[in-house]
Design brief:
Helix content: 10-25%
Order of helices and strands: EEEHHEHEEEHEEEEEEEEHEE
Shape: globular
Strand order of the largest sheet: 4-17-13-7-10-9-8
Distance between the termini: 53 Å
Radius of gyration: 28 Å
Strand content: 15-25%
Number of domains: 2
Structural class: alpha+beta
Number of helices: 5
Length: 391
């Protein structure tokens, strides 16, 4: 058998501690486990959670039917009110030009005729699911002689919490990559131009809100409030914007056009409705959710000479991610009350499975595996603003 690298009991008198940590054996032992609280789910609370049935493959597919009056409704069926063939059968599409729209209205004469033909378009959207997993192994003595008789219970809990956080990180990465709307502060036109000189301002929030209004992004959001997929509530009053803790000073220092604080702390309005997990305040039409594990692009910005986070002399670039209602579905980590989206296998020392690698039955293992998948339904409802973060 190869050298065992898992959790073992090792006599402290021998000078070598257990790979789990030191063993405590004193005359008076106060057992009090200092357990880190489970990290909250921030992104998963907004998902349309999908249940993937068996025997249907690993690809999630859905049709998106484009509205008639939309520039994306591109087809060759167009005939206008005069009977002339037009480039697209979407009448005036997404135009807001009051000077051109009247001429494209589908008027009819007394005789009717072959006029005003339109067409419709649908696009196929899809995503795939992937299996993930990891395992921990231990010896029988590491359990029998450890000073905490609940050691395996704690490790079991941390294994589930770790898998859940991995699922959240996968979801965050996919949402950052899927954003259909981008905005850069100041004179920056891409990530490489962002630093403290290109400062984020209140007007950037207003412009982003207008972009999302034009994309018909709802200002109310359905959120999952519990561990079951059926526990949902609808929040209103703004779209959800995620950011990291580093951006809190930048947001709290922001003022509106009248010189008043643009940032409204959550305690000033929390009594009026449902609050999201991690919600700390609001700016304009956005409700700010602070995520301690929010990612960034280290050193991806411009040369930083001010008082901002930087790596190698270049500014770190932080995202402010807006996720509109109905923008994505995911194979979630929640339960429907009957099944869970992950499975744990525990082979105790001396069990049939443990004998395969250990003929003495002294070692055991615990593994967890889970599926993750995402289907981006409305990329135009997902937006990113980029910013440096002043310390």
């Amino acid at each position: 058998m190869a050298d065992f690298d898992g959790a073992q009991y090792k006599d402290p008198a021998g000078g070598t501690e257990s790979s789990v940590g030191s063993q405590i054996r004193i005359d008076h032992y106060l057992k009090k486990a200092l357990i880190e609280a489970r990290k909250e789910q921030y992104f998963g609370q907004l998902a349309d959670v999908t249940s993937m049935p068996k025997h249907m493959g690993k690809t999630l597919k859905k049709y998106h039917y484009i509205p008639l009056l939309d520039d994306a409704n591109i087809n060759d069926q167009g005939i206008d009110a005069t009977g002339s063939v037009t480039a697209n059968g979407n009448l005036y599409g997404s135009s807001k030009d009051a000077g051109s729209i009247p001429d494209k209205m589908p008027t009819l004469t007394e005789n009717g005729g072959r006029v005003n033909r339109v067409g419709f378009t649908r696009v196929e959207i899809q995503g795939t699911i992937q299996k993930y997993g990891f395992f921990d192994e231990y010896t029988q003595e590491s359990v029998d002689f450890d000073t905490d008789e609940d050691l395996r219970m704690h490790i079991n809990r941390e294994m589930v919490n770790g898998a859940m956080e991995i699922s959240e990180d996968l979801l965050q990465l996919d949402l950052l990559d899927a954003a259909g709307v981008e905005r850069f502060p100041g004179d920056a036109t891409d990530v490489s131009g962002v630093n403290s000189d290109a400062a984020l301002e209140y007007v950037d929030f207003l412009r982003l809100s207008i972009d999302l209004d034009n994309n018909r992004t709802p200002k109310q959001t359905k959120m999952i409030t519990g561990t079951r997929m059926v526990d949902t509530k609808t929040i209103s009053g703004g779209r959800v914007m995620y950011c990291g803790t580093e951006l809190i000073p930048t947001l709290e220092a922001m003022t509106d056009f009248h010189g008043n604080p643009a940032y409204i702390p959550v305690h000033q309005y929390a009594a009026g409705g449902t609050v999201l997990t991690g919600e700390q305040g609001a700016i304009g039409n956005f409700r700010i959710v602070v995520v301690p594990e929010m990612m960034k692009w280290a050193g991806a910005g411009a040369v930083e000479t001010g008082d901002a986070y930087e790596t190698g002399g270049n500014a770190d670039v932080f995202p402010l991610l807006v996720v509109g209602d109905g923008s994505f579905s995911t194979i979630g980590f929640q339960t429907d009350g009957k099944t869970v989206k992950f499975s744990i296998k525990h082979a105790a020392p001396g069990s049939t499975e443990s004998y395969a690698n250990d003929p003495y039955g002294e070692t055991g293992f615990m593994s967890i595996k889970f599926y993750y998948g995402i289907l981006i339904q409305r990329a135009e409802r997902i937006a990113i603003m980029y910013s440096a973060a002043t310390m």
